[in-house]
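[Q] Does anyone have a clean structure-token version of this?
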Amino acid sequence: MAKPVVHRTYRSLTVALLSSALLLTACAQSAEPRGQSAAAPVLPDPPGATASPSIAAPNVSAGADISATSASTPTPSRADASSTSDASTDRSPSSQATPRKPVTVVSSARKGVGVWNFEGAGQALANSGAGWFYTWGTGYPGVTAPRGASFVPMIWGAASVTTEELARAKAAGPYLLGFNEPDMAEQSNMSVERALELWPRLMATGSTLGSPAVAWGGADPGGWLDRFMAGAKERGYRVDFITLHWYGGDFTTANAVDQLRRYVEAVHRRYGKPIWLTEFALIRFDGGGQQFPSQAQQAAFLSAATKMLAGLSYVQRYAWFGLPATDRDRSGLFRTGTQATAVGRAFQAAR
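[A] Here you go.
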């Protein structure tokens, strides 16, 4: 079975470092499948890459404002790419002049979003209809969590496996996400053996525990996740659900949705566990940079993909990448707390 089209991930330490390249023409050409490309693009240091990324996460319930906490929130990172015109930011004169039909915001416990702090983040999160969110850490400083949206903590990498971080993760709620892209040198960069060595400490929280989220090759025999799951089984370790990331390089909606479906199905066949898709969007990675589809293409994919995922009973949750939208964050949902992009409006309507 053919491998799905490239789905590389990206994150940055500061929003100021985020940059992208907008694809100016709707290319039918898809990106190389992961595992067949020569090498992964070089990415900047990820969130949590500093020694012991301590994220303040007091035991607070959804709806509480913890903006006074002193710790910084880890923010996703992207590799630099040359900037292009702002065609995909949904701010053309025609889009401003034409009144938009109001969007019925659908609240769903299944749909989630990756969040890093920006002005109005709490309001945007409330307006999105997301039933859950995460921040690549064990807390969400600076963000007001709306009622009805639950926070899910993550133990990002080896440096996050501390008594303090694990206690915050345990206090944050019933679920816990495992290591972030340990198969990528630019992310948590962990060997299978090291991840297995640390795994009992995550299990000891008692949380419903998601697997490490590999960047690619989740269904590949002998791949990082396959070796981790085999080692966990041999040791009697608990892994309650599989966490996946996927980024599509084919901007044709039907093709991208089919590639995502085939990837998710293959992973489920291999491990037989529930799946959380915690990062996904359309981005093409060429020459170490990123190319994005138009807002209309990204929105069409989000709408079709979420409908497809709703038909897969074993996909328990999904999270879009990500909440903030800027001229360089072209897959984002909100430019301000109330100004949704076309992609954001599609997310609001999704279930």
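[Q] Thanks! Anything notable?
[A] Helices lie at 93-97, 121-128, 163-172, 192-203, 224-235, 253-271, 295-310, 342-349.
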